[in-house]
Amino acid sequence: MGIFSVLALPLLLIGISGIIYIYQSVRWLLSKSAVQNKVVVITDAISGLGKECSRVFHAGGARLVLCGRTWEKLEALYDALISVTDPSTTYAPKLILLDITDISCIRDVAKEILNCYGCVDILINNASMKVKGAVQSISLELDKKIMDANYFGPITLTKAILPNMISRRTGQIVLINSIQGKIGIPFRAAYAASKHAAVGFFDCLRAEMEEFDISVSTVSPTFICSYHRQPAPGNWEASIWKSLTPLPLAVFFRKVSYGVHPVEVAEEVLATVSRKKQEVLMANPIPRAAVYIRTFFPELFFAVVASGIREKLKTEEEN
């Protein structure tokens, strides 16, 4: 009886771990089968997240159309993908030059995309541009550029691809957005505004496309960390959530400052496509709570954020 009591907990943990592993393996296989032979378009495929999305969808047997601003980087990505997969079970990706901020050229590029396979099954709007600074220090020209990259570019491409999906009464559109499409963070006004606009557009699009069996999904991470960056021990000072968090909790949740790794986001995008999720928020407890506080207790949210800004300015003055 004594030996059984000692072994019970380890055996239980091993059993639970095995069940979790089997569940994740089955879910991964189902996700891969959901994109097999599908025509998948990924914008800004040469970014860290774009590369990881390309990897998981290519491994799943999708027919990829990879878009990016630099031909040399697209070719390098192409070589990397075909070098690690079985050519008998995967398709060689198609490469398309696309600058998502060049709105006037997007419709012509969309025609090139459609000419690759004659249709698009899944469109992943991944391209994005960030800017940080006080409102008064950001020029109106830069504000417009951010809106072109994060709002007008994605919706222009979506509108150009949409008639093909509607005529076939099938398709999936994914917007990789940001939690800042739900709450505004100080010193990121232009970025947050563009992300709010994108969420509003795709929320409306989701409702309008339901009659055509076209699913629309948004995936919103806190922020995506640098592809090659590894967090330094205890480096939570740069967290955009620090102003929302009491010091003890800030230490406990300091990993929020590291953001979400591109690998995690890419796997979630694949799962989102497979399960046709409408909305995904990739966030740790503190930023996730901030979204709900902003919705139900806006005055409290504004007060906490303002307090964080005052503390930040005071610290800068002291230093």
UniProtKB/TrEMBL annotation:
UniProt name for this protein: Dehydrogenase/reductase SDR family member 7C
A single GO cellular-component term on record: cytoplasm
Coiled-coil segments on the chain, per record: none
CDD domains on file: 11beta-HSD1_like_SDR_c
UniProt keyword Disulfide bond, yes or no: no
Protein family membership: Belongs to the short-chain dehydrogenases/reductases (SDR) family.
A Pfam family matched in the record: adh_short
GO biological process, one term: intracellular calcium ion homeostasis
UniProt entry keywords in alphabetical sequence: NAD, NADP, Oxidoreductase, Signal
Gene3D superfamilies hit by this protein: NAD(P)-binding Rossmann-like Domain
A GO molecular-function annotation: oxidoreductase activity, acting on the CH-OH group of donors, NAD or NADP as acceptor
Oxidoreductase found in the keyword field: yes
